[in-house]
Design brief:
Helix content is 23%, strand content 26%. The protein has 146 residues and is of the alpha+beta class. The relative contact order is 0.15.
Length: 146
């Protein structure tokens, strides 16, 4: 389990500290998962490596990594609440994620972002070398039917 402290902030992989309602409140208003049901958020937490960011014990950020812990990982649901931005927390979170012992030696680490390319580029993420090699099943309205 990872627990890291910096000033009044902490990052932890302890899932018992996570606040699924707070995570849901953010994700449901995000551009990537509007309207996501809380049951889906909880299932995602249960089946992923999760990193919570806390300020004096209150959750102010989050990300999860979907991984087999051997060859592949996908970074998802990364956020820092607006009132805590500008303090280097996103960079710190990425440092902690990339330094985690279960995420070393991976062949591929993916993510999707609309607006944070410059953040992730600092940590080695690049545009896909061969985007034509990837395929997807896309269902952007999946949460509208739930």
């Amino acid at each position: 389990m990872t627990n890291t402290l910096r000033d009044e902030y902490s990052i932890s992989t302890d899932k018992t500290l996570l606040d699924p309602k707070a995570i849901h409140a953010y994700l449901t208003r995000s551009y990537w998962s509007p309207g996501i049901p809380i049951t889906t958020v909880k299932r995602g937490i249960e089946n992923s490596m999760c990193f919570g960011v806390y300020h004096k014990g209150e959750q102010v950020g989050f990300c999860r990594v979907i991984t087999d812990k051997a060859t592949f990982a996908y970074l998802a649901d990364v956020y820092i609440l607006e009132e805590h931005r500008g303090k280097g927390l996103s960079k710190w979170l990425m440092e902690v994620v990339q330094g985690h012992e279960n995420l070393q030696g991976l062949r591929k680490f993916l993510l999707g972002t609309r607006d944070a390319h410059s953040l992730y580029e600092q940590f080695g993420f690049k545009q896909l070398a061969n985007p034509m090699n990837l395929m997807e099943i896309r269902n952007p309205d999946v949460y509208k039917s739930q």
